[in-house]
Automatic annotation (TrEMBL):
Classification lineage: Bacteria, Pseudomonadati, Pseudomonadota, Alphaproteobacteria, Hyphomicrobiales
NCBIfam families recorded: UDG_fam4 (TIGR00758)
Keyword Magnesium set for record: no
Protein name: Type-4 uracil-DNA glycosylase
Superkingdom of origin: Bacteria
Record-level GO BP terms: DNA repair
GO molecular function: 4 iron, 4 sulfur cluster binding; metal ion binding; uracil DNA N-glycosylase activity
Amino acid sequence: MISANDLSPAELAALLHFHADAGVEWLLEEEAIDRFAEFEAMKAARRPATQAQQQRPVAGERPAPSQAPPRPNTAARPAPAERAASGPQPAIPDGEAVQQARFVAETAQSLSELKTAIEAFNGCNLKHSARSTIFASGDAESGIMVIGSAPSAEDDREGLPFSGKSGQLFDKMLTAIGLTRSAILLTQVIPWRPPGNRAPSAAEMDICRPFIERQIALAEPKAILLLGNFSARFFFGENDTIHGLRGRWKEIAVADCVIPAIASLHPQDLLTAPVNKRLAWNDLLAFQAKLKSLSLLRN
């Protein structure tokens, strides 16, 4: 086995990037260590020494028989708030986290306020393993919204939706129908990358739902393009695959708005199976035609 001491800084950086791309979130010891038992042993070792020090009389003095026990010295102890701040954040029950997310989302009166609120929100465990909070970018006044599923490893590193190779393909898809990133509002259903690119749990989806719905309510798009299996299922409420959900216009209700939406394959799906590009192209043409009928795209 090659030791880390034998690698150059560039080789170490490449190795860490490889682990990150593979979904590795934590580096562990080769053998398991029981930290709880280790901590209890340290406390047990300190206890006799502390008791002996407290019972040892000062030379030349005789303790009074009715002397009150010495008060503990609390001056050097950190305040409870300080101790809590230095440790990990306590887990919030899923139901309470959903209520907090709804309150945070409904309080925001603009996309910029919502972005700040989501970045400060700690009720979803996905945030604690992600590097970045992915939020909507582009033109909120365009009336055109594209929603992906969840951030990828590249999105997490760059802090932007649709980064890396799938993002390059996505840009070409937009160009093919006369659009650019700057001309639409682009976002993801989930603002934080799930570890290892796994599917978000039902609880995580419930916690994040108020955030994406509030983005839609504030932007008030006239048409939405959903990319990916997860995004289509999330909004259509169906369990079919993207091949069964794509290519058909449906309506999604958010707040007081009913918005037409169409689903298509995610760019990453097209990189994995290029044969599906024909299907995605048909969906893009249907999206383009809808935008033209709504006067959101020039003929």
